[in-house]
Amino acid sequence: MLTLSINGKTMQVPPLESLQALIRHLDYQPSQIAVAINMQFIPKNQYAQTPLNNNDNLEILSAVQGG
Prior knowledge:
By secondary structure, the protein is mainly β. It is 10% helix and 36% strand. It has a five-stranded mixed sheet, with no helix packed on it. It is globular, with a radius of gyration of 12 Å.
């Protein structure tokens, strides 16, 4: 298992090959989120190439519409 902090909550997830795989695992829509790993923004076109490491700290932000 891989231990990650996601939005301040510690989670155990199966070993995943990339950030893109984690996004799928968590049922997020890549077009509707922004992700930072260890306080570094990850561009959407790099999700498939971005590896995850044990104890990474992720912030996953969803777009919110307001008025």
